[in-house]
Amino acid sequence: MNDLQFLTWVRGTGLNIAVSIFLLGVFWRLFEIYSLGHKKDLSAPRHASGASGLHTVFRRSLPPPGMLKRSPVSYIGGYIFHIGLFIVVFGFAPHILLIKSLTGLSWPALPSQFVNLAAIVTMAAMVVVLFDRINKPVKRFLSTFEDWFTWAVTFLPVLTGWMAFEHMLLPYTTMLALHILSVQLLLVVLPFTKLFHVFTLFGSRWYNGRVNGHKGVPV
Amino acid sequence: MQGPLIDNLVRQGISRRTFLKYCATLASMMALPPTAGRAMAEAMAASRRPSVIWLPFQECTGCTESITRSHSPTIEGMIFDMISLDYQETLMAAAGFQAEEARHQAMKENMGKYLLIVDGSIPLGQDGAFSCTAGRSNLETLKEAAAGAAAIVAMGSCASFGGIPKANPNPTGAVSVSDIIKDKPIVNIPGCPPIPVVMTGVLAHYLTFGTLPELDDKGRPKSFYGETIHDRCYRRPFYDQGKFAKTFDDEGARNGWCLFELGCKGPVTHNACATTKWNGGTSWPVESGHGCLGCSEPDFWDAGGFYKALSMPADPLKFVAVAAVAGAAVGVGVSIANRAKKGSAKAAHETTTLADLEK
User: What is the ipTM for the molecules in this complex?
Assistant: First the structure.
């Protein structure tokens, strides 16, 4: 198999398999999670200002008082790489074209050089966050294989995409194929790892906010 | 005419100065040092015309059309005339027995020294019966001609990689020259058709240095196939700015914006079209408003469609709907199991009394 055949495979059969597993996993997990339900809370609801599902959805996006100072890397680094990923995934013209061909939705692209810069910043932030995880004994202690693995499968598509764009290390065709393959790896593992927070983030915040709101506790 | 090349050139009104300029241009196109231009001129001027045998197999004659038409009457065309082209079915006056005789004679006289040019793929299906010349299969003819060749030039994508005849489902069992011949130096000059100057460049290199130019991993001369169309494209700045033509006649297309979204394969295609252009530097596909088809890459015909952007799926996603339904079914199944577990836990629940705790 030569490089163009490899690229055609990842664009065809590979994509077909990856997107299928991704959708299978997403539907499976969503049905499973949202059908769990919870026992009815029979106590009388207590009302407190700021205690509701919606409040929690927004509140959890900001660091609690004092936490920014105690763990700046988690918050600042986390924000930077999430926004960076958003720009890279949804701002790059070829990505928008893929989304358009799959869903019919499209929007104007950002200049490639800006997306390139965003990719570099994203990777830098991810490396800093990883280093922090290794460096801080508590974080390291709490980390499992899944944490390292999900970091890697998130980092690889950005790295390979950037290297393809910059023509580094390998010929563009091969690197582009590796980039698409790494995205497929991400798609396959996403529904079955903590990366599923892409779908459950706001739902779970709402759930926690709602349950605690019933008790009159703004979380 | 077996005399030195320069005599022939002079006879045809080509001055030494023009010839030197040509050699210098060729040398620079092939990324050779400036001194190579002079060396090339000296070697080529003094050289006797090398015998060249051109074998057409499963092909459309587009390669021959390209070589003969687009550069005539430029100096490249003259150089092309100056080799001793002893067998070329399209161009030769002889036919039938005479033609075959000419080939056999050339092969005999120049044993081990002639250049073999092949265009077209070689069918292996039905014992090669899909393409025969003078009652012999292409496979047989190729093996015989290759045995006495100094080197082989696989001209065009069919000879280099199988090309269109090899496209899915490859009914004739077409293969490339390098799939069959393993013991001779082979240079691939893919393209559908290839650029004429690439051929003359390779020949000039061979005449000057007695070797084939440096090749990439697909056997193509690095000097012509070292960079992608995309990297040398004059529309590249629009790609970087995110300005794309959406259709072939919208404002973007009229403004010369990037053709990536219209399926241009420039980013994965290695060829010299963007720099040498076609028809004596007149234009080239992207300049005329159409994206690159990727014709100098192996299996370009089966690379997911000419009008699909590289980042788009090569095939329709077939299993997606089934996968989504299956996923939902598994999810529902798991949730039913979870609820059953919860229900049975509830049913099995026993109330703990104070007495139990004091036991």
Answer: 0.80
